[in-house]
Design a protein that fits this description.
Two copies of one chain form a homodimer. Chain A contains six helices and no strands. The first copy, chain A, is mainly alpha-helical. Chain A has one domain (6-216): Methane Monooxygenase Hydroxylase, Chain G, domain 1 (Up-down Bundle). In chain A, helix 3 packs antiparallel against helix 6 and helix 4 (118-139) runs parallel beside helix 6.
Chain lengths: 224, 224
């Protein structure tokens, strides 16, 4: 049955999808800048950052209006509060992409330290996590959301590996320090992106099942 | 006039205050571990982390129940959605304190790199920002919240200074690399804490004035 505010929920879903695709593109472009050594991607990331920021405000407005005017209950209420949280995570993912492009542009001043293999892998994983988390939200798929949360360990492991490897580089050859620190920071930013995707996954599970799995409270019963 | 759900709002305020004081203590203890070179603070930070995580779930439950049962409007609605966002920022501040204590414990394996002056200063600033942001929330003081947002630049500057100084150390003497990277990461975590405090400040301004200042949209009129 079509309800009075299905229209608003549809719009909310579309805005979140739009925001997520800008966020994903930003990560891809930031890593492309690093890999292809081309500074011009920076402007593209900054453009998306602005769009993401604008969408966060739009989504927040839409959620507040829907809460105030429709006074939703149960599943709809959880959908709206989840959308607010998810948009805040997407905005922070956009910020991390900006951090990556800043570090990448800085690294272009120096010759390549080493062929980069783990960083683009890590970036691919993080982008997939963001995409899956948002798809899980849009279709209300808690199984897909759970798989996102599991992906986080893989990204953490890759980040630890990158960190240790770069530390070894620096210790063996002091001339690599500035570049190695730049890459370590990029690894950290990707790790943070995966954390935000995990937060989104947790919010989706709560939305679908009314079950909070944050902080491993897997067995909590639904509260509303 | 006392309203039916003033009790819930009072409880919400108390829970946020409790969570914030654990978060602040965690930052202080994590930096104390680094400064006094005593590992035993780690257990105290982990205890607070658990309490913070539990409180985030409690606050989320309380907000969802209040939204569902009381269907608040205008200021009250903004108060509740702000509380949800603020508790999520406080939880992430707790996570950053855990990151700091992990780096600090790791650093205890090595002799002190240099007398630490800027890191405790930065930590003090970040703690003050968290305290002021939460006080601004509790009393609904948008001027105090604005001052928190301004403090962020100072923390960013200190972090840049620490970063550049430690990079110089590493380049001059390779034996300092592991320790310098550890301190750089602690600087980053403190910077993230200040970012979260700034987010809280922005939420408070929105709550009080109905005005979104995120992404510098200072002149937006209230929407609800």
């Amino acid at each position: 049955m079509e309800r009075p505010f299905d229209e608003e929920l549809k719009l909310l879903r579309e805005k979140i999808l739009e925001m997520a695709s800008y966020a994903e593109e930003s990560i891809a472009l930031a890593i492309k800048c690093l890999m292809e050594r081309r500074e011009e991607y920076a402007a593209e990331v900054m453009q998306r950052e602005e769009k993401i920021n604008g969408l966060e405000i739009e989504i927040d407005d839409l959620c507040m209006k829907t809460l105030a005017l429709r006074q939703p209950m149960a599943t709809d209420l959880r959908f709206i509060t989840s959308a607010m949280k998810i948009s805040s995570d997407l905005e922070r993912i956009g910020d991390q992409a900006v951090n990556i492009i800043e570090n990448s542009v800085e690294l272009l001043k120096y010759p390549l330290l080493k062929p980069l293999i783990d960083i683009p892998r890590m970036s691919g994983l993080a982008q997939n996590m963001v995409r899956d988390a948002i798809n899980a939200f849009v279709v209300g798929d808690d199984q897909l959301a759970r798989s996102v949360c599991k992906g986080d360990d893989q990204v953490d492991q890759l980040n630890d590996q990158i960190f240790r490897e770069l530390l070894t580089y620096m210790i063996q050859d002091g001339s690599t320090i500035t570049r190695a620190v730049g890459l370590i920071l990029i690894g950290r930013h990707l790790e943070r992106i995966a954390d935000h995707a995990t937060n989104i996954g947790e919010d989706v599970i709560y939305m679908v099942k009314g079950q909070i799995i944050k902080h491993h409270c897997d067995d909590r019963p639904p509260k509303i």
